[in-house]
Amino acid sequence: MKIIISNTSGVPIYEQIKEQIKSSILSGEIEENQLLPSLRQLARELKISVLTTTRAYTELEQEGYVTNVQGKGCYVLGRGSELIREQLLRDIEENLTAAIKSARRADVSEEELIKMLKILMEDEGYE
Fold it and tell me: What does the mean pLDDT of the chain come to?
């Protein structure tokens, strides 16, 4: 897991950390039950305060992406977690909405759009 912090993005550092970890979880880069770096280790690697990494991990736990096991560390929850599933469903809805808008701009019919979706699903091995 590689986290890149930007001082010019205008987004708080804890938020950048949280979003990058969340993205890695949703993409499958970080797997279920994987131990995240300790708060101190991550703070040391990123050269930031432990308070900042603590806030990022706390918010990830509140949002249902990780769980903190006292004395052992912070572990990634499974994709079966209801909150993670809701996030994934929201991502699907946003991407399909964007595809529908693009199809309208390109004057693609509903039938053509559905056909394109089916072809892409077959290419991805979706059953």
Answer: 91
